Amino acid sequence: MSTTLEQARLLVQRKRHVLEEIESGGATEYGPLEEVKDVANTMREFGVRIHVAKKNVGRFKYSFNSLQRKLLPEIYRPPMSTIQDMVTSVTARDS
User: Fold this and answer.
1) Which pLDDT belongs to residue 21?
2) Model pTM?
């Protein structure tokens, strides 16, 4: 989640004039938070990291269930469509 967040931040930072956004108060140093989150979630759903998850757990799903997802800071939460259900996340564990 951190990798895609950082990639999204860099992408948005390049796209926008960050200093103007900060002065207006509607942005972080990386750009508008909602835009960064939208880009990160698109990358989490369709980017290369989901293929890493497929390699690790055998499915195009991250090894989070809905409870674990709620415990993550909002900016790090993957889209609901990319996480496992509660039963699968417990029974399909490799540990």
Assistant:
1) 59
2) 0.65
3-state secondary structure of 79: coil
How far apart CA 69 and CA 31 sit, in angstroms, is 24
Contact present, 8 and 16 (Cβ < 8 Å): no
Alpha-carbon torsion (84, 88, 92, 95), positive or negative: positive
Contact 82, 50 (CB under 8 A): yes
Quickly list DSSP for 5-72: HHHHHHHHHHHS-HHHHHHHTS-BTTB-HHHHHHHHHHHHHHSHHHHHHHHHHSSSSBS--HHHHHHS
Predicted local confidence at residue 46, as pLDDT: 93
Determine the 3-state secondary structure of 85 from DSSP.
coil
pLDDT at 34: 85
What gap in Å lies between CA 63 and CA 90, rounded to an integer? 9
